[in-house]
Design a protein that fits this description.
The complex is a heterodimer of chains A (605) and B (249). Chain A has 605 residues and is of the alpha+beta class. Chain A has a domain at 445-594. Chain A has helices spanning 7-17, 34-52, 56-61, 76-86, 105-118, 120-139, 142-153, 286-322, 345-377, 381-417, 428-435, 445-456, 463-480, 486-513, 515-518, 522-553, 562-591, 596-599; strands spanning 65-66, 71-72, 157-162, 178-181, 187-197, 206-215, 226-231, 248-253, 264-269, 276-279. In chain A, α10 (381-417) crosses α13 (463-480). Chain B starts with a strand and ends in a 5-residue tail after the last helix. In chain B, a hairpin with a 2-residue loop joins β7 and β8. Classes of the chains: A alpha+beta (605), B alpha/beta (249).
């Protein structure tokens, strides 16, 4: 069996770096225990291995087909969906009153990482369902919860988020789908939506679309957008699905380079003027509701990208240990046996880069999941507030950094296998294609950079940034106290200082010269910012690993092998020695507010 | 009807087993431990009997270190009703395990005892048979089908020549083979419920059993590495090699 995620790696992040046990002390999780958390993760591993990994390649080779009436797909997807639902994962983080398990987000993300490693395109269906259910839980009326949410958590209905339109993607303020109030309090929805994942299929009795639309007469722009529940088929108050349709028509399926098992749809709502929608929450607040979901969905995107990067790392590591080729440069004897390619420095370097990117990205996404737990369940008001501010600031990073470096890791994995990696005999080319989606969806990485530099940095008097600097500094101080890590601590401290100065400079350019120039190179800033945050988390991992190594020397063996802990420290060293200097140089360039790209004229291309 | 199921904590079947450098045993540091797969089948069979209304209570017992409680919790999450942990850090050989289980059987008086036919760590295939002898119960080993009818249990056994069906008077011992059923996994709601199920702890001393090993392990070695194959030019060379090198024909 292929390893989906190395046990020690996940254990180390969840237990040692993020101290999941401490969550059990909070009233919200008092019914849980570390053993329960582990059992949940074990069940995820079992189901992911048995019912998801089995058809990852098959679903890629046999994408869903639409015959004009119905969408058909390979039967394994439905079986996997049912196991996921039956085991209770749809409601893993929902309250017990709704039939959920009230598990911490951190534990849920750890469990999800097995599914994402096994088969990202099949797990997209339940993932979207849980995300849509989350919005109804937060903003829906009691009646909407009974009618839509309960059957969703029970696995009877699936969910989608229908934001994008053929002409409107990143700029949602311009969307045109309309909602006309009817006499009975419902709305008639009319419009076209595109790139809607999971928008049609036969996996569930019904599909609940969360549709962004504009109520007739609503203000222009983002302040006039409302959110509607629009089922594919009408649903009675008893949550029974009618046989008739709700005038939601599948116009066609889109054919993608990756995630080919997930249907990507073009949907027409209300072509016959009888598509009924139910307003969720208050009118004109739709976008802010949707962003509540998007923020968690963005952690999900980062997690997927990180895990796919990690999967590729494991595949290429395995290959590099087996494949023999050539001799070390110092050996000129053609009669000597060839060495495994992992002995070659360049291959080691590519493996180390993958380890740094993917394990660093995984740490970042799990850290963000724990922040969600903190802001929801921490007993101290101040801690809840600072977690909320920090998460707001980090969300664009959590989405964009892993989704940039995850595919980069897959690229390196292919390079390790060389010709073999380019063939379909190995899973890397599929991982690469699948992972290429992640910089695009849930807000492109370019949008994330603008969100960070134009909005998140300055929110609430930049409290998020201050909180981050404090936490990074605390780790730096810990690392300085530990001699082998002192140089790494100084490296992180240096980039932290550079970043703070650059941010200061950015604020003044924004004010004095306007956003066009200030944000022209926003993606460089996001990359440096993300690189620093991941560097901090690597330093924190090294601190933990060093402490465990010291314990081993004193006779406490613990649950990690010495090699595992050494690997953590060496990866941290590698990151500090190769990645951080690049970030420093990038920040220097950003600081010049170079307008070369901005000044380029369309005609000059 | 009360069913007693014995489960063992062993190295997970997915783990690549490594022999300790000093050849005294298998290296268990930092490896994943899990319920013995044959024991999972035993638990599953008991749960199915309960779902059919045949069994009324499932008691699961495990012998081993504190950590073996994880496997008992897993069995409780799969559907067992309560657990008994016989806690010991000693090496428990088949006979000692059988004696400890006999003591539990005396106390619990189950109508049916289901065990895995063997554990994947030592592959002894002895405990069930020894327990049957000590308890004086009839045994149906290597079961691929089990059906309870009144005070009898019909067990289809997998034997070398095919299948053998035996009918045993209850109380009886059944050991499971691979094809008896496909075990379920622990769902999240059941994992939560398992936490509230009773788990009592006892020791070999409490049960009055001497668990001193009767056998000494002299040496544990990894199997020899398989040699690379060669290509033969023709059938004649193949026959020659089979005759003279491999000496199998």
């Amino acid at each position: 069996m292929k390893t989906l995620i190395d046990r020690q790696t996940l254990q180390f992040l969840v237990h040692d770096l993020l101290e999941v046990e401490s969550l059990c002390e909070r009233p919200a999780f008092v019914d849980h225990s570390p053993e329960i958390f582990q059992s949940v993760i074990d069940t995820a591993e079992t189901i992911a291995t048995k019912y998801f990994a089995d058809h990852n390649a098959k679903a890629d080779q046999n994408e869903p087909v639409f015959d004009g009436k119905k969408v058909t797909m390979i039967p394994e997807v439905k079986i996997a969906y049912e196991h996921y639902a039956d085991a209770g994962f749809l409601g893993a983080t929902f309250s017990a009153e709704l039939g959920g398990m009230a598990l911490p987000k951190l534990v849920n993300s750890a469990a999800q990482s097995y599914f994402l490693s096994a088969n990202p395109s099949t797990v997209a269906y339940p993932f979207l369902t849980s995300a849509a259910a989350g919005v109804i839980e937060k903003f829906g009326s009691q009646e909407q919860k009974d009618r839509f949410l309960r059957p969703m958590l029970a696995g009877r209905y699936t969910g989608t988020m229908a934001l994008t339109e053929p002409d409107v993607g990143s700029s949602l303020g311009d969307l045109r789908t309309s909602a006309t109030p009817a006499k009975d309090g419902t709305y008639l929805i009319k419009g076209h939506k595109m790139y809607i994942s999971g928008g049609d299929h036969e996996l569930s009795e019904n599909i609940v679309h969360l549709v962004l639309a504009r109520i007739k007469g609503a203000p222009k722009g983002v302040k006039g957008i409302s959110l509607f529940i629009v089922p594919k088929k009408p649903i009675s108050e008893e949550a029974e699905v009618s046989l008739t349709d709700n005038d939601v028509v599948l116009a066609g399926l889109l054919h993608k380079m990756g995630y080919r098992g997930t249907t990507s749809t073009v949907l027409n709502f209300g072509e016959n003027d009888r598509c009924v929608g139910y307003l969720l929450g208050e009118a004109n607040h739709g976008l802010s509701y949707m962003f509540q979901m998007m923020n968690e969905a963005r952690i999900g995107v980062g997690l997927g990208a990180a895990v796919m990067g990690y999967r590729g790392f494991l595949e290429s590591l395995d290959y590099a240990k087996q494949r023999t080729q050539g001799r070390l440069p110092s050996n000129r004897n053609p009669d000597s046996p060839p060495v495994a390619i992992i002995q070659h420095a360049d291959v080691k370097k590519m493996l180390l880069q993958q380890k740094c990117y993917s394990e660093g990205a995984l740490a970042l996404c799990l850290y963000a999941s724990k922040l969600v737990d903190d802001l929801e369940t921490h007993e101290d008001d101040k801690q809840r507030e600072s977690a909320s501010e920090l998460l707001d600031l980090l969300t664009p990073i959590v989405k964009a950094w892993p989704s940039h470096y995850g595919p980069r890791a897959n690229d390196l994995a292919i390079q390790v296998l060389a010709g073999a990696g380019y063939t379909k005999d190995y899973p890397l080319e599929q991982l690469y294609r699948d992972n290429r989606l992640n910089p695009i969806h849930e807000g492109t990485n370019g949008i994330q950079a603008l969100d960070l530099t134009g909005r998140k940095l300055w929110q609430k008097g930049s409290q998020g940034l201050k909180e981050l600097a404090m936490r990074v500094q605390a780790t730096i101080d810990e690392a300085k106290a530990c001699k082998p890590l002192a140089a790494n601590a100084n490296a992180v401290a240096g980039v932290l200082k550079d970043l703070q100065q650059t941010t200061f400079q950015l604020a003044s350019v924004l004010q004095q010269k306007g956003p066009e120039l200030a944000l022209a190179n926003a993606s460089e800033y996001l990359d440096s910012f993300g690189g620093l945050v991941v560097g901090w988390l690597w330093l924190a991992q090294a601190v933990k690993a060093q402490a465990l190594l010291d314990e081993r020397k004193n006779g406490t063996m613990g649950q990690y092998s010495e090699a595992f802990l050494q690997g953590k420290i060496q990866a941290c060293n590698f990151y500090m020695n190769t990645e951080l200097p690049r970030l420093a140089a990038q920040l220097t360039h950003f600081n010049t507010f170079d307008d070369t790209a901005l000044a380029m004229q369309e005609a000059w291309f | 009807m009360k069913v007693l199921v014995a489960v063992k904590r062993v190295i997970d079947y997915n783990v690549k087993v490594r022999v300790k450098p000093d050849n005294t045993g298998v290296d268990l540091t930092n490896v994943k431990m899990a319920m013995n797969p044959f024991c999972e089948i035993a638990v599953e069979e008991a749960v199915r009997l309960k779902e059919k209304g045949v069994a009324t209570e499932i008691v699961v017992v495990s012998i081993g270190p504190k950590a073996a409680q994880e496997q008992i919790r897993t069995a409780l999450a799969l559907g067992a009703d309560r657990g008994i942990h016989v806690e010991t850090d000693e090496e428990i050989q088949s006979l000692a395990a059988a004696k400890l289980l006999k003591a539990v059987v005396d106390k619990e008086q189950p109508s049916l005892v289901i065990l895995g036919k063997q554990s994947i760590d030592n592959d002894n295939n002895q405990t069930g048979q020894m327990l049957a002898a000590l308890a004086g119960y009839p045994q149906g080993t290597f079961a691929s089908e089990v059906s309870v009818d009144g005070d009898k249990v019909k067990v289809t056994r997998e034997i070398d020549g095919g299948l053998m069906t035996v009918s045993l008077n209850l109380p009886a011992i059944v050991t499971t083979d691979l094809r008896l059923n496909e075990p379920r996994y622990a769902s999240l709601p059941n994992i939560m419920k398992a936490k509230k199920k009773p788990l009592e702890s006892t020791t070999p001393a409490d049960l009055g059993v001497d668990v001193t090993p009767r056998l000494t392990t002299l040496k544990v070695e990894a199997p020899a590495q398989r040699q690379a194959g060669i290509k033969v030019a023709d059938v004649a060379e193949l026959v020659d090699k089979l005759k003279n090198e491999a000496k199998v024909i």
